[in-house]
Amino acid sequence: MSEICYRNEFKHEISQKNKVVLTSRLRKVLKHDENSVGNSYSIRSLYFDTIYDDAYWDKEDGRSYREKFRIRYYNNDASFIRLEKKVKDGAVGYKQSACITKEMADQLIQKKYDCLADASHPLLQEFYAKCKSQCMEPKVIITYEREAFAYGPGNTRITLDFDMHASTQISSFFHDGRIGIREPGIDCVLEVKFDNYLPGWIQSLVQTEETNSTSHSKYAIGRHLNQI
């Protein structure tokens, strides 16, 4: 498993007007990240939780340490799928990932976790053990668009996420197009992520009229939209 790298992450909910202003500004000085097709790309994730919804309630109760598991692919391309573990620990967090096949993903969707019984990757081993011991199961699909920019110093990434939909029709994970309920009232979520420091000019670049930070959780919102 790759070495754990703690990162800072700040989120802001912004209006459509400020999204347009900000993307125009960012495109002039920063490069899009490697996943981009044109200006943006689609992301689809399937989140797992215990039968008691521990990950959901850890977020709702504001626990300092939280973790959640998901499988994810991009741009409707099921040839590249990752299992990811995302951890939040106080003000910082980290993410670990391992590639899986579509056949394995199909098995996980059906809660047939023994497909990971002989996995060699430590993250797949951990997920398999927790599925068995904590009765993990797929809970909600989150689909959205992202425009992302990268800057080397500070390992800085700036992302703008929009048009989020959530569905509990788990069998639709590999269906094309938008599925589920659209998130109401939120035009865009700006996220700024970096390792040890954020370059000052980047900090100035992402300033908008809307300065209030948010703990916006796609997983928790997706559960709310589908009435948990």
From TrEMBL:
Residues 7-223 form the VTC domain. GO terms for biological process: polyphosphate biosynthetic process. CDD domains: PolyPPase_VTC_like. Transmembrane segments: none annotated. Signal peptide: none annotated. InterPro entries: VTC_domain, VTC_sf. Pfam families: VTC (PF09359). It comes from the Bacteria. This is VTC domain-containing protein. It comes from Trichococcus collinsii.
